[in-house]
Amino acid sequence: MAKKGGFGGGMPGGMNMNNLLKQAQKMQADMQKAQEELELKEVESSVGGGAVVVKVNGKKEVVDIQIKEEVVDPDDVEMLQDLIMSAINQALRDIDEMQKSQMSKFTGGMNLPF
């Protein structure tokens, strides 16, 4: 006798809801752990031949800026500002790429926000 529709008997292919739920919970825990690890990492960006060096952590916080003395010119403050902005923006792009790379392991390449 054939079974009628309903939710008894599990999902096709032998997968049951409990296993699916456990896998989803494990993936969520793994993603959380990976995100926490990323927050502890730092990237360093250097511009102007090392004239300005910026370090940014995985929380996208600037944690260090180094400026060589010879690049500090009171008559050309705009150049120094441009170097600092450039170094910070590059460090932030590097952090974004690191996060995307790490999270793509979980999302299978889907471009999901995190």
UniProtKB/TrEMBL annotation:
It is found in: Cytoplasm, Nucleoid. NCBIfam families: DNA_YbaB_EbfC. One of its GO terms (molecular function) is DNA binding. Its main location: cytoplasm. Belongs to the YbaB/EbfC family. Keywords: Coiled coil, Cytoplasm, DNA-binding. Homodimer. Residues 17-46 form a coiled coil. One of its GO terms (cellular component) is bacterial nucleoid. PANTHER family: NUCLEOID-ASSOCIATED PROTEIN YBAB. HAMAP family: DNA_YbaB_EbfC. Binds to DNA and alters its conformation. May be involved in regulation of gene expression, nucleoid organization and DNA protection. This is Nucleoid-associated protein FYJ71_08350. Gene3D superfamilies: Nucleoid-associated protein YbaB-like domain. Pfam families: YbaB_DNA_bd. It comes from the Bacteria.
